[in-house]
């Protein structure tokens, strides 16, 4: 588990959860492209919008 997304962006698989339920899973690049929960949190933490390389 990580709260700082930059520490997990190179993981083979990232699982995003909301209220204890899995809402999406994939690589950093896939999750950024989905523009969903993970991408929103990435944008908040890094100030980058839509950057898969971050």
Alpha-carbon distance between the two ends: 19 Å
Percent range of helical residues: 25-40%
H/E topology pattern: EEHH
The structural domain count equals 1
Q: Uncertain spans, ≥5 residues at pLDDT below 50?
A: none
CA gyration radius, whole angstroms: 10 Å
Overall mean pLDDT = 88
Describe this structure as you would to a colleague:
The protein has 54 residues and is of the alpha+beta class. The chain has one domain. Helices cover 31% and strands 20% of the residues. It contains two helices and two strands; from the N terminus they run E-E-H-H. The protein has a two-stranded antiparallel ribbon with strand order 1-2. A hairpin with a 2-residue loop joins strand 1 and strand 2.
Give a brief outline of the structure.
This protein has 54 residues and is an alpha+beta fold. The chain has 2 helices and 2 strands; from the N terminus they run ββαα. Strand 1 (14-18) and strand 2 form a beta hairpin.
